[in-house]
Structure prediction request, 248 residues.
Amino acid sequence: MKFNKQIFTILILSLLVSLAGSGCVSQGEGAEAGNVKEANNSEFSNIMANAVTPWNPEPTEPVIDPTAFVHPQASVIGNVTIGANVMISPMASVRSDEGMPIFVGDNSNIQDGVVLHALETIDEEGEPVEKNLVEVGGEKYAAYVGENVSLAHQSQIHGPAYVGNDTFIGMQALVFKAKVGNNCVLEPKSAAIGVIIPDGRYISAGTVITSQAEADKLPNVTDDYAYRHTNEAVVYVNTHLAEGYNAA
Prediction:
């Protein structure tokens, strides 16, 4: 019996080595190297046109300035314009397949886990949904982000929404059905919902602004305000990151 067990063990080990060499053990049936490569070459990409839907029969590819950098783990979908030197970090989603278009201005940054999306802007009869659009310079957008804007980690800009130039949107902050002016600061976990935030104001951490009366009373960003120069530093870092990754 001892001799037979040894022979049985040797036979099993030989069979396993043979199967591993053929690729069957590690990859499974039908998963040889050629098939795996073919499966990974999907038609889908992290930068792609929107799907054809009842409210939008036309697929539109994003327009991305060559100096911008989109990380392979970020996604940019549909009718999106990305300006010069924009840095889009891992797990960010800029998805213009329901509300469109989405615009991001020069030197802005979209950090890890940020979401840019919007409510529908065209109905199934092909008519614009005006209440879900914001007008900037005579053009209409589902969501508009100006120049030198920082969208910090996990923040959300959900259209209809507008964010003015040189504004800092802090970690996990939200802008929804709202307009945020130039040189503003939304501190972490704050929100602007259904309001217009005047230029040069800030919302304290964790504060949710839902009435225009509250928005009009927000404090001014003064020279001694703690986050007065935060956005400048963040823009500096991220524009250089975009340049560096593109040069790599």
The domain at 47-247 is CATH 2.160.10.10 (UDP N-Acetylglucosamine Acyltransferase; domain 1). The radius of gyration is 25 Å. The first strand starts at residue 47 and ends at 48. Residues 7-42 have pLDDT under 50 and may be disordered.
